[in-house]
Design brief:
This protein is α/β, with parallel strands linked by helices. The chain is about 30% helix and about 25% strand. It has helices at about 20-30, 45, 55, 65-75, 90-100, 190-195, 195-205, 220-225, 260-275, 305, 320-330, 365-370, 390-395, 405-420, and strands spanning about 10-15, 35-40, 65, 80-85, 105, 115, 125-130, 135, 140, 145-150, 160, 175-180, 210-215, 235, 245-250, 285-290, 300, 310-315, 330-335, 350-355, 375-380, 400. Strands 6, 7, 8, 9, 10, 11, 12, 13, 14 and 15 form a ten-stranded mixed β-sheet that branches. Helix 7 (about 195-205) crosses helix 9 (about 260-275).
Length: about 425
């Protein structure tokens, strides 16, 4: 039996494992017409003995049911049928077991079949569903394995998800021949630079001619032009767009770890090309302090910067191309940790990148990129002790104080090293 969009049915979900938990979550989020009134499994007796039985304590079911109880519910018309949530290799056996008992089974449709493209890094998806920051549908390989696109860029091409079949969700708009690049957090400049730019470059390098779905941000539009992709090939989506998009003939590009040689080599090649196209320009300062104007500002006496002839640069005051040129021409960049630091990849070899952190948020994300590109790295951490309330809050957005003497010593060391090298 096939479930239709306008159906209103009561079902029991079969399968006591993580697969069924994921299905239940998706049903609650996207399928209001499906009322899951119970959970069942052949291992119900063992599951019901566990003190930490999630089906009882987290999902609110009285217990995990056995097949005879499911049959009784069906015969008494308390349910319309069963949805099977086990792994694919168990699906046929469970379906046969239920049908022998005369219980109707609702079929899930495999909608997304992946096929290899020019290399094992790209995947072609017949049909895909997404909503801004999340993939709504799951993606199937031709071998029947189901995947969801990796959201943090650190899990290889895809992060494997439980094997299961899915229903096509309702959708608002259909797009053909497109590569969706609406990954979580990539409205942020850092995440876009380190999780999307490499995908764009790799797709273009491999001759992809379709469209790209990107977030509608000014800096993204600027970067697309810098990369050299015609704006007519970009579909810009607002980050708060609640519509569900159905993509026919979608291209899925790989996700690389920020520390993987493949991802780093792509970014380095891009940075090298930009440095070649943007000639060195003496009008830009040798030493810059990249000042944050939002949250997580570093507090210190800015007269220290004047002592060393360091000029203050505020990224928000410049288009992306100008920001790149500031970093490209700088021998020393000092900045509080933040998205603007992603431009450090454009610095020349043996330049110095100094990053400051609050004690509650030490996250030296740029080190793999800088090491790979032979750019020197220094870290300065907030002085003093982190209070308990900041630890509880996480402290990621708090302003913080930098010790002036430590800042002076670090600047002095970097400038002396630059001077001896240039002598």
């Amino acid at each position: 039996m096939e479930i239709k969009y306008d159906d209103h049915i009561k079902v029991i979900l079969w399968g006591g494992g993580r697969n069924s938990q994921n299905i239940l979550k998706e049903i609650k989020r996207h399928w209001r017409g499906i009322d899951v009134i119970g959970i069942a499994d052949n291992g119900c007796y063992s599951l019901n003995k566990y003190n930490d039985n999630k089906w009882v304590h987290e999902y609110g079911f009285e217990r995990v049911l056995c097949v005879s109880e499911v049959k009784e519910h069906f015969q008494n018309k308390k349910i319309d049928g069963v949805i099977i949530g086990t792994q694919a290799k168990y699906y046929d056996g469970i379906k046969y077991q239920l049908e022998i008992e005369g219980i109707d089974v609702y079929e899930w449709k495999k909608i997304n079949v992946l096929e290899d493209r020019s290399s094992d890094e790209f995947y072609h998806v017949d049909e895909l569903y997404l909503k801004s920051t999340e993939l709504i549908g799951w993606t199937y390989t031709k071998y029947g394995d189901v995947y969801n696109e990796c959201t943090n860029g650190r899990g290889g091409p895809f992060i494997g998800c439980p094997e299961r079949e899915i229903l096509s969700p309702q959708y608002d708009e259909t797009i053909e021949d497109a590569c969706p690049l609406l990954r979580l957090w990539t409205v942020n400049y850092f995440h876009f630079m380190h999780e999307i730019v490499d995908k764009l470059l790799l797709c273009e390098e491999n001759g992809y001619k379709g469209k790209y779905l990107l977030y509608n941000k000014k800096y993204i539009r600027e970067l697309v032009s810098i990369i050299g992709i015609d704006q007519s090939r970009i579909i810009y989506i607002d980050s708060n767009d609640e519509r569900i998009y159905r993509i026919i003939n979608a291209m899925m590009a790989p996700a690389f770890s920020i520390s993987s040689k493949k991802g780093l080599s792509i970014l380095k090649e891009f940075a090298d090309k930009l440095r070649e196209s943007f000639s060195p320009d003496k009008s830009y300062p040798d030493f810059i302090y990249v000042k944050r104007i939002g949250v997580r500002k570093a507090i210190f006496d800015e007269e220290i910067l004047s002592e060393f002839g360091i000029e203050i640069m505020i990224p928000e005051e410049y288009p992306v191309e100008e920001q790149i040129k500031f970093f490209q021409n700088a021998k020393l960049v000092i900045t509080p940790h933040g998205a603007a630091g992603a431009n450090s990849m454009y610095m020349s070899q043996n330049a110095f990148f100094v990053e400051t952190f609050p004690r509650a948020w030490i996250n030296p994300t740029y080190i793999p990129v800088l090491v790979y590109m032979h750019i020197n790295y220094r870290m300065i951490v907030e002085s003093g002790i982190v209070t308990e309330d900041r630890i509880e809050r996480g402290g990621q957005t708090d302003d913080y104080v930098i010790d002036g003497d430590i800042l002076r010593m670090t600047i002095q060391e970097c400038i002396e090293s630059i001077g001896s090298r240039d002598a």
